[in-house]
Every structure is written in C-alpha cells, then in structure tokens.
C-alpha cells in the first residue's frame, strides 16, 4: 500500500444518465470444492443497484499514454471496492482495512472545508456533507479542531455481463430496509457503506499533474478486480484529460489475479499504488515494475515507492472481534470428523486445493487398510484419520468460521500441499488451534516471512514417505512438535498490531506527505 493515482476515465455520462432515470440506489471457512477457488464470486441475490458501463469511451493504448504518479494530490476519502453479499477471507480483509482506517481517527488540515458555526452542517469543497452536528453517524466525516477526518467507505459492487455478452457491467449495490450488500458477520467492523453513487462530483479546477487531473478520492481494488479499475471513471475525450480518482490494488494474493493485470500495465500505469499482503506479492509486483528498468538503481528505488505492505489478521485473535460465543463441541455435530474437544490423531486439509498431492499422502499413509467414511474422511489401520475441512461428502460444503475453529481444535496436524496464492488464513488458524502445520514451498509458502514455519515442516520437494513419517511423528509426539510452532503463533497474534502500523504507513504516504496530518488528541 504506497503512492498512486490516475485511474481512468469512464463514468460521468453513465452516472448522470442513471441518476436521471432512477430514483433508487446496495472466514473463516474455506470452500470445499476440489477445484481451486478464486477469491469472491459476487452473489446473484437481487438488490437495488446502480449499473455502470465499462469502457464506453476509447481508452488509450499503452503506446499512446503513460500514466504518472499523482504525488501532489492528497487523499481525503478512501473507497474500498468489495463484492456484494460475499463471505470469504478476501472480503473480510477488505472490511478490516476499512475498519483500521476509520478507527485510526486520522485528521488533516483542509483549507477547502467551509468554516461554519458549531451548530451548522459542514460540507467539503465539492458540496458533500462531511458531518451533521446533530448526528453521530459513523458514515460521516468528522471535523475536530479545524481538521477533517480521513474516512474510508465500502464500495459494494457486482460484476455482470451485458445482455449481448460483449461488455462488462459493474453494478454499484445499495441496501434497503429488507437487506444489505454487507453480510451481517462484518457488522462488527467500522466499515460504513457508501450511500451515494460513485464517483462523487468534483469541480473542474481539481489538482493537475503531468497533463492529468486527479481527485482526492482513492479507490482500493482487490487483485481479482484489476480489470475493473477503469470501470467507475467518467468518460471524456481525450480519456486522460479529465479528473480521475486515484487507485490502488491490494494484492491479497498473486495467483487469483490470473494475469488480468498485464505486464505492460505495471510499466505504463505508474499512477497505481500497489498494496501487498505478502512478501510473495511484493516480489511479484516489484519484479514486474522493474522489468524494464535494468540496473538503474534510481529507477528501481522509484518503483519501490509504489509498493506498500498491508497485512490483515485473524479476527478472533482480538477480543474486539472474538466470536459471539466460544466455539465448542457440545452442539450436534455436522461432520463425523468432529471429536469431543480433545486432540485426536486427526489430520485435516483444505479440499479446495492441492488434492492431487493430498490424495497421494492419504493413499500412502492408509494403504490397503484404509476405510473411507461417507463424509470423505479416511482412517488408517494405525488409528490416524484424514479429514477435509468442510461438510458433506468429500467436504464439499463450506463450514462457518466457528465450525472451522472447532474442527481444528480436535486435530493434531494440518497439511497444505496446494498453491499458496498469498499469506493464507487456514495455516494460521490451524496453528492457533494447536495443530502442527506441514506445507510445501509453493507460492507464498516459499517465503519464510509469509509462512514462518521451522524448516522441518516445509517441503521443497514432494517426498511422500518423509511426509507420512513426519505426520506419524507429529501425532505420536504432538505436544513436543507443537511447541516448535510457538514463534509462528506469536507472529500470528501480532498481526493486528502490524496492520495498524501498515495503515499508519499508507496514511503517511498518501496524506501526511502531501498535506499536514495529525492524530486526534
């Protein structure tokens, strides 16, 4: 998460047309399908929405225009693009980011804010209401001692194909009296929903930089939606000669981007700030950014300014976000893998990835004496069971966050030989639940800063005999092996504090370095 801006250009005509024609306006568990799951697919539930057309005007090709970093334009409002009605680890991280920005109570000097009496409403330079003195709503920006609060909002969107199938439509989703685009599990976060159409109105005299004009709005996109970065921009001719909102990509993973952000975009889209959730993502982004810079140290240093670390955390590690009730095993079990609350000779795995390797481990460990249960768990003659983290046959149904924790607390070992597209949540949750974590070295798992396990629990080469031998040792001497993960556990428990430091760094980059910003007294 570092510096950025311009973003693109296609939105004012669509917004005006839609506003004129419409008067209405928006885990814990892992998927258990054996195919690799990409982060968040938008729900098909019907919600009031605002439909935005993507790429209505011609966007210049990379050879026509290079975008520049809008370092002179300070950020005043942050919008976090998030799939509507979706509960997975990615959306939860997005809500955490919104919460951490708002909870930080960052205030800055703002000469454009109108100066009215204490009893009057206060508006920003665009005529938008900042705060209603008669309301304590968290969805309004606050003014404190002549300073304005940096505020973050959730921008709930839904991706759709047009009826002809040749265009991508982006729907801004709003709530009503009966439903909301935000799952109730995220109500615990200070993450208010954007209640008006994006983009907000900006005056023509916005700050100009390198031939482009950048607004003080920043939109943070998850890495799975990099192809939508331009979808909210108002079109104009030429496409770059208009006010642009600033943009950032949060690389919560690398693999799930699926190459949507092409190599030439890393080079030509110098306006974009890259926030990286893992060292794996940082390595990926910096490699792409510096691909054509050669040995120019100054240019490499300049590229690194576009990359900022932004982590997330396991919510129940903080009392602020703990489960409403502590997970127990006293309720009626929904999966035969669940035990009586004590550790069993149980090995659990994510059935959504790496099943080719997992199946081989199970076959070798269980041999001819293996017994497959209806829920997909497999028992060995030696008393060790392998169980998918999921409900139903083969663990194909998602467990709730509480159910995942409950299952992990009964297991002794968690294995993960699939791809690690980012700093995955399940290995961390397994460690917190007292499991010995065993992985490969693929993706983020190859970076000890992302998965800081002792080397004996990480396999660069798949050796099924050694892996099975280690699993048996971890089951028979569980306490001894689990103690070796104490440093990993401490690192996980510190991630909420680390995220606060990351947000401080981002605010320093996009606000403090551009205008005066202070913490509220």
TrEMBL record:
Region (Disordered): 18-67, 190-212
Biased segments, Low complexity type: 38-47
Compositionally biased spans, kind Polar residues: 57-67
Biased composition (Basic and acidic residues): 190-204
Protein name: Uncharacterized protein
Source species of the chain: Skeletonema marinoi
